[in-house]
Design goal:
Strands 12-18-17-13-14 form a five-stranded mixed sheet, with no helix packed on it. It has a four-stranded antiparallel sheet with strand order 4-6-9-8, with no helix packed on it. It has three domains: 2-76, no CATH class; 85-182, Sandwich (Immunoglobulin-like), CATH 2.60.40; 186-272, Sandwich (Immunoglobulin-like). The protein is mainly beta. The N and C termini lie far apart (84 Å). It has one helix and 18 strands.
């Protein structure tokens, strides 16, 4: 609560305007402010106010105990110091990469404000700040950070994003966050050894989508004589059991997978069936 003394209310509104302007940048602790009102007379009026969450000025009275209309200064908003943004944090900064899901929740954003340690209000305009860094791989929805890209970003395990939040007064906090993506170890990947390219829509191609997060992947399939029947550098491309446009017979074939990024290599056998 604070009081204002006007030496002459040659327009109480003018005095209130001067008072309100002078409060910008001040703390909300009790203050006494003196504002000259003009005409050289000593008639005084007083203004009492309190700062509240819903109203910049909860109430104010004159020396004659008459009450002014609540909200008379509401629109100026200079005394409202609730939920001014101070800091932005993220509850979690790592996620597991997926070969089937491209919209993956990472963590919740929380805003520290001037009134409470953690704001209970949804902060305004929380977003990724610009198209730079690794922002294109992510998006913020309902204050939750999501991985939202079908791009596998091979070879990347750490991403740097820039997020910002704006409060009701236009104050801005922009911060960098380092996001880590975990991926399965290449040596631990389960690689199927049987597929059935018979056109039934089930298991018609053979591939290893789990290596889509690795850079420099090379997949080859050979027959028993060592002839290479299939080659790709795209982990999302599967082999359909054909060679030069012709279906290959039921048999056992051999595959190799090389990872340029890590220098690792694996070999195995593949059974082609058509039942």
């Amino acid at each position: 609560m604070a009081s204002l003394k006007l030496r002459k209310p040659f327009g109480l509104l003018l005095g209130l305007l001067l008072c309100t302007t002078s409060l910008q940048g001040q703390s909300s602790s009790p203050l006494t402010l003196n504002v000259a009102g003009g005409y050289g007379q000593n008639t005084s009026s007083s203004l009492a106010y309190s700062v509240g969450e819903k109203s910049s000025i909860s109430f104010y009275t004159t020396a004659t105990a008459s009450t002014l209309s609540a909200g008379f200064l509401q629109d100026f908003g200079f005394l409202d110091r609730d939920h001014l943004v101070l800091d932005l944090s993220l509850s979690n900064a790592s996620f597991a990469g997926s070969t089937t899901q491209f919209f993956i929740p990472v963590g919740d954003f929380t805003v520290k404000t001037s009134r409470t340690t953690t704001s209970t209000k949804t902060p305004l305009f929380t977003n990724l700040f610009g198209p730079g860094y690794d922002n294109p791989y992510f998006e913020i929805k309902d204050n939750v950070l999501f991985w939202s890209s079908a791009d596998p970003a091979p070879g990347k395990e750490t991403f740097l994003i820039l997020a910002q939040v704006l409060d009701r007064k236009g104050n801005q906090v922009a911060k960098f966050f380092e996001i880590k993506r975990t991926r399965p170890e290449f040596s631990a990947l389960i690689i199927t050894n049987t597929f059935s390219p018979n056109g039934d829509g089930l298991n018609d191609t053979w591939g290893v989508p789990g290596i889509r997060f690795y850079e420099g992947a090379r997949i080859s399939v050979y027959d028993r004589g060592g002839v290479r029947l299939f080659y790709t550098e795209s982990p999302d491309e599967g082999w359909d059991g054909t060679f030069n446009g012709k279906q290959l017979p039921v048999s056992s074939y051999f595959w190799t997978i090389e990872i340029g990024e890590t220098g690792e290599m694996r070999r195995g056998m593949l059974n082609l069936i058509r039942k």
